[in-house]
Model the fold of this input.
Amino acid sequence: MKNTPPSPDSRRIRNLNAKPDRDGPVIYWMSRDQRVSHNWALICACWKANELCKPVEVIFTLSSSFLGAPRRHYDFMLRGLAGVEAALSSMGIPLTILQGDPAHAASEHAAKIEAGSVITDFSPLKLTRAWKETASGLLPCSLYEVDAHNIVPCWLASPKQEFAARTIRPKLNALLDTFLTEFPDPNPRFQTPVVDRPAIDWDRLAAGIETDESIMPVDWLEPGEQAAGKQLQSFIEHGLHGYAKSRNDPNSGCVSRLSPYLHYGQISAQQVALSILRSGADPQNLDAFVEELFVRRELAENYCFRNERYDGFDGLPDWSKASLLEHAGDSRDYVYTPETFERAGTHDPLWNAAQSQLIGTGIMHGYMRMYWAKKILEWSSSPVAAFEIAVALNDRYALDGRDPNGYTGIAWSIGGLHDRPWFERPVYGRIRYMNASGCARKFDVQRYIDAVVGRSRPSA
Ligand code: FAD
Ligand code: FO1
Done:
């Protein structure tokens, strides 16, 4: 682990258009990494601004239809962004929220202020990649993309879609020391005083978003960088000690519950890793946590970055698609409609509890997510329908949904992605099987059901 580097590693930045820098202010077009601290995209934007001897400003293009996100997700995100506005303002950096089509809004703003360069943060998802594709043509200046979300820049980790954790792990580990460094201060040196700039009216912005109000904001998790830092601290003190042994027990509370913060970029995975490795926790817990936070998460990024069909059955490996389709006509003990799944109306109290936890709290414990998705495969009319139902429910209700981890987690559970073929069985074909008695061997199923039905705080 190196100390603070003098400047960002140039391999973390890539140029998205062949246009030169101009003599004008620099824009950080924030999207995925919605934080001020430990944010390589902000650091690079300040570094570019200093190079051009110009000020830096931040824009966020607010799209009112992001993959069907309902009120719950916009509420969490906007409340987090209000904290970003305050933190940036204390650095003399203004934040502007732009509405309308993101690529056009960002490009028009850049033209209006005669920007010298635009820096944006990386996401492998098709929607945001399309925004940047359009913007790279419209912008009058250079457009750079910085991977501020991953420890090892996604494009560097591997030039292709990786087969499994065991194939990407050595590639990631070989680069870990180079990239798991401290963060330099952003330190913009040419800011001009921000005079009589009205504060953003966040209530009006939130009210202006037309979205599905039926999925209400969550009240048990505070959004934003400060709350994320507190959650990390609390996990280090109270959960990390049992992570290796108990992370698959939904009753244990030995998981970090950081995924909503990581999804919105309200905390840096790299900073989480640095804090965990410094915590003095014993190696088996450190290794188990880093395996999930670093290897599994960056494997999911690799899947979505290298496979355009990441969010559908079509993106699955040939072996598993063939096996699932061979068993598509098998008789099913139960066949449920998307509506029955959505309202947790199956015959299985354990599955219904997991779905109820998702509906009620916006999260579902990781082990239960595997069970939840595999039973959707088992009780849907076809494997293609199952994949669609799982993605739709996860993106609709999960605070950490609409994320590479979600598409990859569903592809692993339903389609054997990054897994191996297992012995053949009806409906599943060669996909790994899970059932309620397997859960009962791992944890107290009734206690989990009672806790969720009791609507107590999620033990996650
Ligand atoms: P911890 O166990 O504390 O792990 C810390 C972090 O490591 C997580 O926040 C996450 O960023 C990463 N991580 C942990 N497990 C995995 C994993 N299996 N794959 C990739 N990264 C991982 N994760 C999401 O962020 N969003 C989703 O929508 C999502 N949907 C999933 C759907 C299914 C069917 C499955 C099987 C998994 C899904 N996951 C998803 C992955 C994983 O279950 C969650 O990241 C994890 O449960 C979040 O809780 P936590 O932060 O307490 O995790
Ligand atoms: N990113 C944006 O730049 N603008 C948005 O309006 C926006 C809305 C949004 C809503 C729900 C959600 O889960 C994510 C959202 N994001 C938005 C994207 C997010 O910050 C990430 O870039 C993507 O989820 C990719 O990981």
